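Quarterly update from the structural biology core.
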Amino acid sequence: MDKTFDPHAIEARWYPVWEERGYFAPDMNASGEPFCVMLPPPNVTGRLHMGHALDDTLQDALTRYHRMRGVPTLWQPGTDHAGIATQMLVERQVEAEGSSRHAMGREAFVDRIWQWKAESGGHITTQMRRLGASVDWSRERFTMDEGLSEAVRKVFIDLYDKGLIYRGQRLVNWDPVLHTAISDLEVENVEVDGHMWHFKYPLEGGATYEYVETDAEGHETFRETRDYISIATTRPETMLGDGAIAVHPDDKRYAPIVGLRCEIPVGPKAQRRLIPIITDDYPDPDFGSGAVKITGAHDFNDYEVAKRNQIPMYRLMDESAALRADGAPYADAAAQAAGIVASGEAPDAMTIDAINLVPDEYRGLNRFEARRRIVEAIDAEDLMIAAEDKKIMQPYGDRSGDVIEPMLTNQWFVDAKTLARPAIEAVEDGRIRFIPDNWSKTYFEWMRNIQDWCISRQLWWGHRIPAWYDEAGNVYVGASEADVRNKHGLAEDVALSQDEDVLDTWFSSALWPFSTLGWPEQTDALATFYPTNVLVTGFDIIFFWVARMIMMGLEFMDDVPFREVYIHGLVRDSEGAKMSKSKGNVLDPIDLIDGIDLESLVAKRTSGMMQPAKAAKVAQATRAEYPNGIAAYGTDALRFTFAALASYGRDIRFDLGRVEGYRNFCNKLWNAARFALMQVPDDFVPADDENIELSMADRWIVSRLQRLEADMATHFDSYRFDLAANAIHDFIWHHFCDWYLELIKPVLSGDASDAAKAGTRRTLVRTLETTLRLLHPLMPFITEEIWQRVAPLARGRALAAAGESISVQPYPAADDSRIDANAEADIEWLKKVINGLRTIRGEMDIAPRQKIPLMVANASATDRERLAAHRAAIDFLAGVASIDERPAAEIPESAVALVGDMQLRVPLAGLIDTEAELARLDKRLAKLEKDLNGVRGRLASDSFVAKAPAEVVDKTRAQAEELEREHVELTEQRGRIAAL
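Predicted structure, tokenized:
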């Protein structure tokens, strides 16, 4: 083995071998219950981010674990066509060339996207290979490939034929830049500085009422005669589409005016619209004025109120979120709306949608410019009560970066309420289990209040909706135009045009667990691996993906898509903040693997930032946090970090210090393996049981290994990757490296018998080989590299000429018969003895090479037996020159360590230079007192405690406690030495 561990050379060598030899494909001849996990399909435009890296690490660990257990194991890969992201990316390329998608036409533009996909669309799969992902690449799917496209068409047609898909007018999130509806997952709500305007809506005909406020006991606190009702809004431009004012039925303040009408204070005075004042449970009497304007076409809450009360919903904006400029003049539109209010009956949705209630002077304006002018106009009439600055939550499109507009549009919808019922039952009755279980509550809350799912998108890239229209607007659904004509008996002279929209990408990914296995064909893979075993994902897509896969799986496969859903936390920075490009705190997994210099890291984090001041702030913070850039840690250290952090918690705080620690762990394992290999000859063959003698240390490490094997199986089966990582880290670092390798040195280098040496060498290589297999799912590269050298020695033969791999070896299983409680108790006793003596050496500053006399008091018979049995180890590891048992009263002044009732006493006279040690301690104590006075002074300052950041104050308090602890310990130590 090379002297130094080089992760990059190892990673580059082994992954191609694994892939080329087909180790990642399921062994269909293997026995046992098949195991299958589905890769959440990353966007084809994507780059590996920390969430991907966490998700892939955990799935790969599970896959490698089950593969090594000898069952047919499939980790199914694939990518999502990412409708919006991909179309935006290619559209920008086309525009940079001086053209546009509209100039190209739909067919040519889609062809251009396919060309991009072929040339550049696989970057994230390359990065997954860097992470060691053992997916079966031979089965890689793409949501737009022919097989999955067929599945999408069939599902759409079948749901439509069952009445579970329909086309209708509903409120959606509308992106004014992309000109499409988007899902809630694609909306980012950001707190921004905004305003809350309070306006008067005058009562019809100058009517008045007594507005009275009372306290909790019913006593009157305020009374005023009013001829208006007060409304507050953050979006005054939507007032143009108000259909009613709603108050709570129990709100006595407004009881006198319920049923009256009020005037919207916007637009030409002659055509001011009157709207009714109604009651509804939605308004909160204790919030604002308690009265709410209802604009059903531009607010999600208002939409539900409008539906319940048959209030007309008037669309005010076009696809760019500018105020509408189409339709009849405002005077005509306002008269038509007035007629609707007078009649009390709303016409059909198409008739209402054609009514443009934007006054002529505002038509075509940008919504924010319209807002400014409307506020000015209302204020000019003295109808504005107040305008207050207010923090508001503003929805932004995560792709376009523009403010999202709730918009009433014609879209295709899935009847999610009907599909949700069996999906809820599947979790209620335990056919699907969430891990941790608390996420089932989140699932139930959303599913029991589910809204119909908008599945259409106004894009060109994606699965085009299989619906055709004739000139009369009748809709026909089928797999193709020919299928539609045949299905509905339409003659060739009946002109048909296909729907221009495409399906939401979540629609195709909802079919992922069965479409990737070949459905609608009844394939062997489908029969073998469906239902899959577990879905590994973050909690942020429980609604958007997990729930929809459950609904579709039950509907089309009559079974759940997976038995368990393991929900992991989201990766955040070391302070717990969300990682985001705008905050400049993003870490790239590949940078952690390969390393990156400081200036490249700064450039990466500030790239694309439009505000120079913000970019400068991010650059400054980056230089402070990473003055030397980021070191190259390798894949194994990064993977192990993710596993160690993957608890059942909601968030994962990623600390680069942990990666560095696990890189050191790799070095520790590497050096331990090198030491082990140096203890056995190249032609070593493990001796038979009859020809060996096992030491207490050998029996102990084998016993501890059995316990580790049982723990690893338990932790993997319960998705406690953190506990698995901690267990094997503790075993390798502490049990194997720190103790076992030290305990066997006297055997291998001393005058032990040949049988004892043979037993220790066999135990050494077999323990190391088994440990490598236990660790492999978490650290695949380093374990493979070391195993190739250790396995032939442990097995007593060379690896097959064709080559073998640790990745397809059996995963170790515990053998309870090899647990040796006596050996464990003996070695634990020995460790306490050695640690006690080492502590004395450290506290007394005794030179490492100086042998010490050991006096023992209060030893039991068992202690005496163990002292004799482990004398060689004690002498070797603790530097003991002699052991003398005496009554405690006869032992001179000594440093003492306790092991149970037994006293380990080291007389200090002659071991240390008393005067020199006292001088050293006095110098250190003086320095501690000076530092303590400074820290105490800061903490005593009211100004410091009150004004300094809380984390700085906490850090200062912790520093004071540490200094005080050290001062006490050194003072006690000085007293002991002075007494000599």
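DSSP finds 34 helices and 31 strands in the chain.
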